[in-house]
Amino acid sequence: MAGRLTTMSHSRPTNTSLLELHLSGIPGLQHLHHWISIPFCIMYLITLAGNSTLLCVIKADPSLHLPMFLFLSMLAVIDLVMSTSITPKMLSIFWFRSTAISLDACLTQMYFVHAFSVMESGLLVAMAFDRYVAICNPLRYLSILTSPVVAALGLATLLRAVVFMSPLTFQIRRLPLCSPGVVDHSYCEHMAVLKLACGDATFSNTYSLSVSTYVGSFDSLLIALSYTLILRAVLSLSSPQARKKTFSTCGSHLCVMALFYIPGLLSMYMESYHQELPPHVQVLLANIYLLIPPAFNPLIYGIRTKQIRDGARRVISRRRPIAEKVGPSPQGTGLGVKSIP
Fold first, then answer.
1. Please, which residues have CB within 8 angstroms of residue 44's CB and are 6 or more apart in sequence?
2. pLDDT tens, 226-270?
3. What's the pTM value of the predicted model, to 2 decimals?
4. Closest Cα partner for 249 from 211, 289, 299, 203?
């Protein structure tokens, strides 16, 4: 009798009663969750500290209010939102076995993860174009990348993400889901949630693959084109030091971009075409492209950039005299009242 009930519960399609899902974490590695949480937590803390510091420095130093650093500010905000949308819940699964998540919260998380991933991809294209103009056409840099142009590029990346990802979320919201609602993933990844669908999920599956393939291939092609033109211009430089510096900068940028595009696309295609790989490999790949780039971006684009380091020094030097004025002096207390001998 219990077996019949279990079978019935697994086969019953439902869309209205299944209001709660359960995230399994990393399938097959549940016994290692506590250990896996350590690097994940460290990367999240680096993401929070690095991107927040970057935003504060760029805002506080007027000399950094240039197109390159405005794009970098947008990237920092995207990284903070994208990482925060999955990591706290993921850590709660690893530490407290808090696997439950409401259907609405799951769909919200899914929308934020995928929409901000598309936004980051578009912004990486804009930043590659910015570097192309700065290196190949430096005299016209500020006349080409004016504030309205920078704002338009940022708005375009936002609108593209909304247009591409909204149908995906609405479609899966309309699909009937089968109980028990166990998602074999550490967050509400679209393809993993789609496996719970009892109805025809062909459109959602095809649409997801088409959008991901288009965004990944088209954006990476534009980035590759920009950096190819940059490298061609660099090779014409007479200074070996200038060539070495540019090669180093471009190489680090491309490495971070590869960590963003390759694991994400591999995870999606493995999930879609049911490749014979352990489930934890797919989940770990999906985590890598959402956790490592947000932690590395402020280091690669920020700390390694001389203007950012100089700006941070200026901000610190400006705040130091203020702290000295507020602090106690030899003749008085911190409240400015002279001490009584």
1. 83, 87, 91, 291, 295
2. 999 988 888 876 677 777 777 777 777 788 888 888 887 777 777
3. 0.85
4. 299
